[in-house]
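User: For documentation purposes, I need each entry recorded in a consistent format: the amino acid sequence on its own, followed directly by the corresponding structure tokens. There are two entries in this batch. Please keep commentary to a minimum and don't merge the entries.

Assistant: Recorded as requested. Entry 1:
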Amino acid sequence: MKYLRDFKKESVLAPLFKLLEAFFELLVPLVMANIIDIGIADRDMGYVTRMGLCLLALAIVGLVSSITAQFFAAKAAVGFSARLRQALFDHIQGLDFTNIDRAGTSTMITRMTSDINQVQSGVNMVLRLFLRSPIIVFGAMIMAFTIDVKSALIFVVAIPLLAIVVFGIMMWTMPLYKKVQSGLDKVLGVTRENLTGVRVIRAFHKEEEEEKKFGEYTTALADSQTFAGKISAVMNPVTYVIVNGAIIALIYTGAVQVNIGNLSQGEVIAIINYMSQILVELVKLASLIITITKALASADRVAGVFEIQNEEREGRQEASSAQMAGKAAQDRGSDLPVPFLEFEHVSLTYAGAGAETLQDMHFTVDRGETVGIIGGTGSGKSSLVNLIPGFYPVTEGAIRLKGQDIRSIPEDTLRSCIGVVPQKAVLFKGTIRSNLQWGKPDATEEEMWQAIDTAQAREVVEGKEGKLDARIAQNGKNLSGGQRQRLTIARALVRKPEILILDDSASALDYATDAKLREALRALEGTTTTFIVSQRASTIRHADKIIVLDDGEMAGIGTHEELLAGCEVYQEIYYSQYPDERKAE
């Protein structure tokens, strides 16, 4: 509801104008009764004409009121959904990787698009009809009582029956519509997977299997929608039966009352008109209930995303930081300098994982050092470097930057001094310039070209029409894998980070370009501390320090020569890539 705060005026005016319309509509049967009882009975055509003009005036005022109400309701609903969607997007952007992984991309997309659209429709319909329909229903009943109490008692029986039907079906269908939206999640997920992996699907000639899989999901979605729709569709005929049954009773009762002289013909017509108004409004109310049911189901799903919160660690951080700092001072001695970056017996277990991904990582890194990280597939290399920017919280131990626990450093401060080049090169739709400005929004052309040269991407940029203003397609689809990797490295270098993390980000480069890149990065020493994750021993062999991982544990740490002399895991990796050197020995 807080996202409607900026639309208080519209949220009040829309129902008020609808109530005004309803008020004029309730007067119509009374005017009709007067036309019949006075104008037609007395053959007074002047009176009939005046009352006819009165009906026309009521219609015009009602139309203007209705259009005004529609305008304010639409303005409030659209503005509300825009703010809600922005708030949801901002919230998702603030979630840590653990929560994003748990929620799932397709679910987030569905809730930000389809679900919010459903909520928007619900708000619109509520502002337009939620007050109008009940006012018409109960107003018509009250007006009927002013005409004839005995006839109006039929309303007292019919309206509760109608309420039971309407709200009973609403309570039944609400969980069904939640199921429908969940089915939409699955359809969106398989669609997204197919569109992003279309080349792989065609390469393995799996089109028919994927079509069958998509058909199963869409059929399941259609079945759930049909089942929910069938139940909702019961509402109209049942309400029609109840209302028309009430009209039959009214006609019979009215005829008896007219026969004994208690009612006039016009008053009977007025009462029947009021019952007809109730019928029309209940049809609208039935449609409104279905829309509200969908909107509430979707709102519940949207609220579910807002309820996902990152773990609050502030209190524990402060204590942990103080404890760790004290322990570190004791371990090193008070006169020893504090390392630039320190992993203090760090372990990591992903949410829902059965075992630790990293165990007891303990090492220090000085400013300006180049650290190579190598190990087999699944050994935890990416997990290790993802801990430095705080993408995932450590489950044991602490990581300290300049002596301070990174958990106590504000997120924006921590990440502003780190440049990350992820394993999968990701570029955004726009230009080369706009992508490089992700690293530093106010970067000059000189800074951009300097980063491009370091990343060995000058030939890529100069080979494009427009150079820095060359267009980049979504996900960089108009570039090769190596070109994307070099531009993502340049993007990280533009901000001149204190810590540069290259997570296997040169895997698509040829050996010559890789060598030039390593040489250029070594020239950054003294200002930038570099972490290089790689499967290639050649990429990290000249690093100041090499960390060897094996199944989440540190198998060794040292220089290339030290590890080659005393680390079996490193020897196995290195000699598998350079078998000739083993033979030479």
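Entry 2:
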Amino acid sequence: MSRESAKLGPVILSTPTDTRERALGILRTLVGRDDATFHDGQYEAIETLVDQRSRALVVQRTGWGKSAVYFVATLLLRREGAGPTILVSPLLALMRDQIAAASRAGVRAVAINSTNAHEWGDIQRMLAADEVDVLLVSPERLNNPTFREEQLPTLIGRIGMLVVDEAHCISDWGHDFRPDYRRLRDLIAQMPAGVPVLATTATANERVVVDVAEQLGGESVVTIRGPLARASLRLGVLRLPDSRTRLGWLLSHIDELPGSGIIYALTVSAAEDTARLLRDAGHNVRAYTGQTDTLEREESEGMLKRNEVKALVATSALGMGFDKPDLGFVLHLGAPSSPVAYYQQVGRAGRATDNADVLLLPGVEDEAIWQYFATASMPSEERATAVLSALEANGAALSTPALESRVDIRRTPLELLLKVLDVDGVVQRVKGGWIATGRAWTYDRERYDRISAERVSEQQHMVEYETTSGCRMEYLQRALDDDTAVPCGRCDNCAGAWYPTDVVASSAELASSSLDRVGVPLEPRAQWPTGADRLGVSVKGNIKPDERMLEGRALARLTDLGWGNTLRALFAPSALDAAASPALIAACTRVLGDWPWADRPVAVVSLPSVRHPLLVESIAAGLGSAGRLPRLASLDLAEGAPVSESGGNSAYRLGSVWTRFSVGTELRSQLAGLDGPILLVDDLADSRWTLTVAARQLRLAGASGVLPFVLALRA
């Protein structure tokens, strides 16, 4: 069939028998085995796509072979004259694995993403020459103005099949909701009649299945759902009293874990600190987080696949789609916030092996961290209204930085809010930024309240998983509404604890030493934020070097495993202000002892604190006493200045503190007699604009340098 005839609609050139024989041949090429056969449901999905040209939702456990369905179907459709498959894939790591798998099957697959802009011209030429079988794109790429306006219309006109991988991301109820995925409903509506659509996921409960199926076409969608039990996995939960003991256990027994694997942590700092501790003890591991350089992440993935490291210590950035069939173990230091998310992560292990170990070491701090990272995917009415009003008032397109200067929302949550509003059709991304579409919009409070309540419920289900006396695999299956769930006979509740519970004393001591490590660099701000002049702050460009603070220090991050636990308790909303304990002051003193400053501070100044005056004053006094540094008068606090809550953007945060502090007569006189930098003490650093403005005031008043010290760094 010619390319032109393919645009007019499907022409079935084969019988079901022919399709099965040809599909089996492709499958055997894909897996490299002449005796390979289809798993239950695989051929049914292929038949739905190829012979019926219909829509299918496949919900099957990790390792079942979902990618085989779309690669086999793609080649069959291409042989009948269909255009290329568009595969929507959420992660770069997943795209890399999918391209490698496609190559093994003889499928010509290419990707358009943020890391390969230099290849886009060649890819467009290959598409024009019909030399591409599968084009992989991220859901965010679908809303790139150039791609959406110049490339997507042509692709839609000749698309052979649409595949939505990790389709649970479509749903508000999915554990990893991505607003851009909801655009797929509009994309499907634009496609020619008869183009097959496949959605795949391993982590969807019944609520998510219904939601995804509705967006794919409702009753016309064929749902193929299999049992989610993973016979290769041996699940266990080991409850230990604190981070010291958990890390001590890991140091004691990491070499006993089978093969190579993944150690998951809840925060970036926990992953990096754990990896450092293990490396210092002689274990070959690497950290892998969303903040890790892209090339380093690719290198780490390859090293794990080749068994060149014992483990990657990772956040959830290493999750969906990472494919190492012989991964021997998955261990969690701290629990994800839902059984569904946990099932997705442990599904990395044992995909092509008879046995793999999965162990959860929950932490007492888990629930606090879940709350700290509460989802930002749902807009507040106040913020959404502010964004719409700013866009409507401007008339022309506004870039994200320009919009950020008009609304008190930080860049990352602002970008997420814009995506949600874009999917709702009230804003649109165009060349040059964002515009309001003029469509009416009502805040769906009921929907967002339902989702928020459901996620709180999921957190409770995770606690129940940790404490259940029943089968753990059965619990996870039931959490995903798998009605085939039965006891596995392998987990620690079914067969008894299979893991050691002892902690070697020397390992516990090493873990304690690591957790007691103090001192996090606090980088100085070098530039004023864009748009500050709109808020009455007449500064822009670079901060003058003689008005900047010097590099400072924080005792720890709020998300740290060690001192982070103490600090989270101190800064909890319900915590009462009180003087610092001797242990806390001693830890702060150690930070000063390790601080490699060029010039030693000659005096101490504290920032006036509204929320924690006793805490700040006690820290300043303790550091002054330990360092034999004179205490100077505090900065004066102005009344009535606007205050931006945590989470506001840089321009608003600066505006809220610009006139808040001043140097009084006594402090100015004291500064005049000093020869050297001063130590500036505060409780918590978030945006760093409070410290930046206070340091500028002190520098303008005569201080030769300002070394900021805070108890906690928010991120």
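Summary note for entry 2:
The longest strand covers residues 678-685.
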